[in-house]
């Protein structure tokens, strides 16, 4: 729509449209027009005009058109338009109909009528422009609104307060906050509507800080008092900031300023305090204003659900029903989400029944929540049936079903559904990437991330990069880790504490503790997870002293260590040789005196220390604890078996392995990865299928015969003869990978290997000998730590 070139003659700002003279413009039917409240009454009124011969009376028809538009129904607007089309349209008639169309949402009709008005040579006035801009704001037609702005300037209405307010509102609603602010700043005077339009524009577009700052500027700079609409926008902005101090200042202003407090404002205040985790103040407001306010109850319940306080959410909903309030679809969304978190399928089905009886199933958010609960409660078939029945599948719906498949371990179905999605957003990509990482499909997750880069309009966020960092860490790919860090900085992805912690963990797993600690040192606000990652980074690299220092620093900061932190500290002691034989009893006492119940991970750390020092009895005790807490944990059986084997207690080894067999557990085969010229090669213990196997065997023989490597037969944890042990040790996956690295990479190049199990002492000795003989640095990561091996020495000091 082009306004500037559509007029047939120049605009005359002061032009007055001449109506045809009438004689009965104040007759009684017009006086009673204000009593018409339905379309039938308006038509009856028009019929009475015709009977009196007044159906061509311009003044009467103008007022009838205006009243029909005020009624605001589709039928009344159609009736008004019919009257308009057969009459001699005045500016007032045009304004009435444009306003009626815009208010009802018939924005295109409003703008077409605006255009026709200009073609008819009737100049818009200070009312026409706001009505037209309202249509542009509702339809988000920024181009048409900008043209109207041009007309405003040309016709000298740019200084009119009513028009300026409409321009600010239009630009803010269309998301052009720069233009909105320009108009706002140029206003010679402003009223509460001006400030509210700009503040709400900021708040609704995610610029919460700007909204709050502008509010306080309003309080300082001009004698304008906010109204309830202003305050609701400011309160919602405060909720997004999650700044309790600012929230309290805004609340204090409301209490002292005399602003009328309505139900909407109270609900917004409750939401604000709960977003800031000040549940006590929110609860006080809730109790003060009563539970008979549906919006207030919904605000309380939905925030409790968000915080994971499902019992409290259900209590609010129960209180609401006891007060005689009937749950609406928002209430049911909170109820279903609570049931989903609790995995309470019976209550969930009851909610589903209520939803169906009250016709809420047509709301896609409700259906998405029901899909979620059925998936979480392992009722996948029911969830899929709901999904298939939905006519309006939004991207959120698709994401819900994919997330459900992943939660149930059905990655194939998740992947198939992902590929058939008609539209994907960042949540879709994050869900499938996270699912692949969860299932240990790390290389596949990286490939999906790379394919995501080619999608227009989809930019990776912090959640994406956390998953990718996790995948990279498990692969131990340092070059990829460096690229990921560069990608995050290049694309301006915010390094919050969660993403930073993921990067610390990634670099520590990739054998770069220096970069890991550099990221940790740059963190301003560190939570327990961040400290844990740093302690683990030092533990994995063998820097036990620094790990213990970090543990002590965390305690001094007033943070309460959890089980994972204790694991990190114990692991550091074990890796650094700080847990000598005499100190194992102290470690046991530390575990027993912990302020939380020791979990299987903590007992496994003690078991690992027992393996290093050969304490068979304590190892058996720790293993027994693990088998109660996590009977499916294969690694604990393997560790205990190794302890027994090292002590020559083959009967006990047999018992452990028989126990594993009876429980259906199987030790995974040892596998090692090595990257050569951008290609990853995987070796499995005992497997001789690699195409370079002859050269690999030759290198193994060279190290054994010419360099004098003597196999450590105590590492052969099978009850077989000596010759068989020698052969089995020579085919360990890390040895095969090292030999391949030596023959396939340039001299002096660092060799990096990632193994899925603990490295055995024989392979460790082999690596130390090879590093000195061939002047190579070998970085070997097993499932517990890093070994930085150079010139015949290892960073672990032979403790791991």
Automatic annotation (TrEMBL):
Keyword Repeat attributed: yes
Alphabetized GO MF terms: mRNA binding; zinc ion binding
SUPFAM superfamilies assigned: TPR-like (SSF48452)
Domain DYW: residue ranges: 708-800
Residue runs in coiled coils: none
PPR repeats: 90-124, 191-226, 293-327, 394-428, 527-561
Segments of this protein annotated with the region Disordered: 1-26
Keywords: Repeat
Residues that span the membrane, as ranges: none
Superkingdom: Eukaryota
Gene Ontology biological-process annotations: plant organ development; RNA modification
Sequence similarity: Belongs to the PPR family. PCMP-H subfamily.
UniProt protein name: DYW domain-containing protein
Organism: Brassica cretica (Mustard)
């Amino acid at each position: 729509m082009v306004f500037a070139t559509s007029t047939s003659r120049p605009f005359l700002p002061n032009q007055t449209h001449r109506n045809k003279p009438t004689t009965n413009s104040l007759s009684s039917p017009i006086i009673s027009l204000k009593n018409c409240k339905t379309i039938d009454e308006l038509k009856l009124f028009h019929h009475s005009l015709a009977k009196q011969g007044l159906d061509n009376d311009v003044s009467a028809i103008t007022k009838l058109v205006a009243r029909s538009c005020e009624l605001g129904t589709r039928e009344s607007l159609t009736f008004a338009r019919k009257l308009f089309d057969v009459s001699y349209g005045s500016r007032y008639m045009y304004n009435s109909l444009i306003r009626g169309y815009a208010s009802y949402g018939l924005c295109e009709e409003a703008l077409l009528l605006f255009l026709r008005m200009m073609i008819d040579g009737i100049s818009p006035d200070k009312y026409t422009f706001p009505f037209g801009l309202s249509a542009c704001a509702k339809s988000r037609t920024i181009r048409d609104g900008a043209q109207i702005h041009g007309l405003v300037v040309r016709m000298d209405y740019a200084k009119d307060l009513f028009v300026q307010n409409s321009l600010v509102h239009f630009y803010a609603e269309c998301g052009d906050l720069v233009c909105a602010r320009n108009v706002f700043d140029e206003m010679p005077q402003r009223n509460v509507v001006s400030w509210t339009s700009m503040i709400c524009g900021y708040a609704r577009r995610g610029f919460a800080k700007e909204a709050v700052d502008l509010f306080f500027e309003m309080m300082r700079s001009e004698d304008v008092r906010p109204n309830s609409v202003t305050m609701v926008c400011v309160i919602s902005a405060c909720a997004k900031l999650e700044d309790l101090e600012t929230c309290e200042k805004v609340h204090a202003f409301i209490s002292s300023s005399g602003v009328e407090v309505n139900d909407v404002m109270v609900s917004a205040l409750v939401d604000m305090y709960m977003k800031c985790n000040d549940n006590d103040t929110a609860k006080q407001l809730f109790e003060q204003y009563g539970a008979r306010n549906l919006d207030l109850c919904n605000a309380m319940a939905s925030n409790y659900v968000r915080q994971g306080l499902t019992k409290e959410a259900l209590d609010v909903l129960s209180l609401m029903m006891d007060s005689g309030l009937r749950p609406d679809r928002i209430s049911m969304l909170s109820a279903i989400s609570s049931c989903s978190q609790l995995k309470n399928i019976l209550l969930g089905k009851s909610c589903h029944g209520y939803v169906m009886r009250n016709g809420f199933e047509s709301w896609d958010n409700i259906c998405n929540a029901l899909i979620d609960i059925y998936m979480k409660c392992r009722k996948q078939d029911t969830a899929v049936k709901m999904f298939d029945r939905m006519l309006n599948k939004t991207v959120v719906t698709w994401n819900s079903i994919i997330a459900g498949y992943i939660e149930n371990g059905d990655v194939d179905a998740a992947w198939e559904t992902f590929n058939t999605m008609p539209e994907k957003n960042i949540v879709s990509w994050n869900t499938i990437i996270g699912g692949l990482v969860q299932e240990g499909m790390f290389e596949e997750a990286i490939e999906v991330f790379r394919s995501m880069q080619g999608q227009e309009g989809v930019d990776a966020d912090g959640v994406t990069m956390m998953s990718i960092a996790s995948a990279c860490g498990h692969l131990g790919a340092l070059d990829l880790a460096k690229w990921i860090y560069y990608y995050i900085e290049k694309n301006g992805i915010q390094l919050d504490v969660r993403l930073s912690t993921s990067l610390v963990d990634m670099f520590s797993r990739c054998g770069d503790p220096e970069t890991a600690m550099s990221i940790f040192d740059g963190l301003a606000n560190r939570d327990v997870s961040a400290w844990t990652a740093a302690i683990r980074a030092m533990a994995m690299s063998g820097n036990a002293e620094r790990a213990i220092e970090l543990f002590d620093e965390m305690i001094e900061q007033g943070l309460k260590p959890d089980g994972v932190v204790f694991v990190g500290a114990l692991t550091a002691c074990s890796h650094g040789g700080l847990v000598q034989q005499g100190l194992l009893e102290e470690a046991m006492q530390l575990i027993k005196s912990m302020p939380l119940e020791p979990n299987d991970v903590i007992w496994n750390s003690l078991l690992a220390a027992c393996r290093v020092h050969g304490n068979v009895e304590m190892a058996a005790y720790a293993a027994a604890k693990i088998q109660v807490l996590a009977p499916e944990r294969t690694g604990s059986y393997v560790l205990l078996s190794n302890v027994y084997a090292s002590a020559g207690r083959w009967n006990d080894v047999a018992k452990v392995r028989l126990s594993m067999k009876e429980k259906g557990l199987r030790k995974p085969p040892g596998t090692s990865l090595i990257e050569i010229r951008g290609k990853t090669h995987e070796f499995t213990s005992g497997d001789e299928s690699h195409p370079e196997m002859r050269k690999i065997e030759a290198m193994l023989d060279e190290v054994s015969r010419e360099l004098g490597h003597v196999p450590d037969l105590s590492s052969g944890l099978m009850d077989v003869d000596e010759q068989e042990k020698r052969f089995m040790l020579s085919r360990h996956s890390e040895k095969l990978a090292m030999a391949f690295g030596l023959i396939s990479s340039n001299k002096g190049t660092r060799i990096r290997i990632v193994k899925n199990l603990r490295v055995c002492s024989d392979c460790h000795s082999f690596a130390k000998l090879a590093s000195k003989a061939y002047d190579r640095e070998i970085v070997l990561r097993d499932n517990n730590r890093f070994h930085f091996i150079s010139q015949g020495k290892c960073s672990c000091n032979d403790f791991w």
